[in-house]
User: Fold this.
Amino acid sequence: MSTVSRAADRIESVPFLTRDDASLLLVLPGLFVFSAFMLFPVLYLLGISFTNAEPANLFAGEGVVAVLTFGDALFVGLENYADVLTDGQFWNSFGVTWLFVATSVTLKIGASLAIALTVTSDLVRGKRVLRSLIIFPMGLPPIFTITVWRGIFSSAEFGLMNQLLTAFGASSVAWLSGRWTAFVAYNVTEAWLAYPFMVIITVSALQDVPEELHEAAVVDGAGFLARFAHITLPSIKRPVLFASILTSAASFQQFLIPFVFNQGGPARANELIVVYGYREALSFQQYGRGAAISIIALVFIGAFMWLNVKKGRLADGVNE
Assistant:
């Protein structure tokens, strides 16, 4: 008998407790930890979003209790949400964020598929070394990697990207001063940060594709592209979709890349929604407004992930 079963039997021996009650008691510690580190911050953020909280009134009282009860901040209802939803900068940030998600995830999927197919090919030697090199970026602090890429996309002549352009006879580009050139820099850097995770998932999926299917297709005269389209892609679709949903959420919440590169510039044109919320809350010290932006973002990304999981049938069989 396992330790969990023995614990459940002991709890069940207590009067007025059924086995279902005993199971509930066993998960209470985990629920408490989840509530303390996940649920409580979200609820506190939700509470702030209905107030006019700012540093002057949120921290007006003394002690932790005063802060937990929002200090002297006043209840304003849905005023913050109305202000945000009628702000043109919000809709610019909202649109740019989803565009960033779409373009960066497409780039990640394409790059990870190409790399995964390369390192799993029978024509490639030293696969283990290659796989070790591929996951190497995961061991680097994101802020370090982003700072390096900021130097690569420097608008100065000594920037690596400009040196490459000059070597091929092209003129240098002010990468971080233009809206769309900065947006391209965001995408390349985001793909570099996320591709190791995508490659790991894709390689694992490729290794589960039955070799017999490829051999039978070769016998039938199918070429590489035909086998890739009709055997490989259908076989790895669900794992890649799952990884894409996770990395989409990461792209939606991206803060460091735009903030380190040019703070969402030029002139807030590339301000992703998390940077927008940060600026409203901390730069303009409008905590209530910043909290409302965060809640709206949370609702949209939650709906996006739920819809993709449901439409992609990724949860099939979990209740079986």
Observations:
- The mean pLDDT is 84.
